[in-house]
Amino acid sequence: MEFLTEIDGDKGLIKVNEDLDSEASGEALRKAFNQVYDQGKRTVILDLSEVQIINSYGIGKVLMCYKRLKAENGVLKVKPLQGFVKETFELLMLDKLLPVDES
């Protein structure tokens, strides 16, 4: 399992194309994040538009990315969320923590 990463100027993009509900998907997110982070990108956009299910394991990996960026004055943004993922983020108030990237 591997998630697509892209560099767009000073931003890194991670396209998550599977549910974030297992150790394998969490590890794939960590690897994708490290690819972008190791290239010096401190603004990372997480595209979760294809994710149907996210559980505590996936949330934990998202928060790990957030904490690493915040420690270096970076920012983790999410593409506009929908469905269950949006409800989960709102319930956990992550929508207040992670800004939405409208671009």
Task: Tell me what the structure shows.
The protein has helices at 23-37, 56-70, 83-91, 94-97, and strands at residues 4-8, 11-15, 43-47, 75-78. The chain has 103 residues and is an alpha/beta fold. The chain has a single domain, classed as Transcription Regulator spoIIAA (2-Layer Sandwich), CATH 3.30.750. A 4-stranded mixed β-sheet has the order 1-2-3-4. The chain is globular, with a radius of gyration of 12 Å.
Kindly state the number of beta strands. Answer: 4
- The CATH class label is Alpha Beta
The CATH superfamily bears the name STAS domain
**Class by SSE composition:** alpha/beta
| CATH-derived topology | Transcription Regulator spoIIAA
Helix percentage: 40-55%
Instruction: Report how far the terminal alpha carbons are from each other.
Output: 27 Å
Q: Extract low-pLDDT stretches.
A: none
Shape: globular
The largest pleated sheet is described as: 4 strands, mixed
Count of separate structural domains: 1
Strand order of the largest sheet: 1-2-3-4
Order of helices and strands: EEHEHEHH
How big a fraction of the residues is strand? Answer: 15-25%
Task: Tell me briefly what this model is.
This protein is of the alpha/beta class and 103 residues long.
SSE inventory with pairings:
Blueprint: E1 4-8, E2 11-15, H1 23-37, E3 43-47, H2 56-70, E4 75-78, H3 83-91, H4 94-97
Helix pairs in contact: 1-2
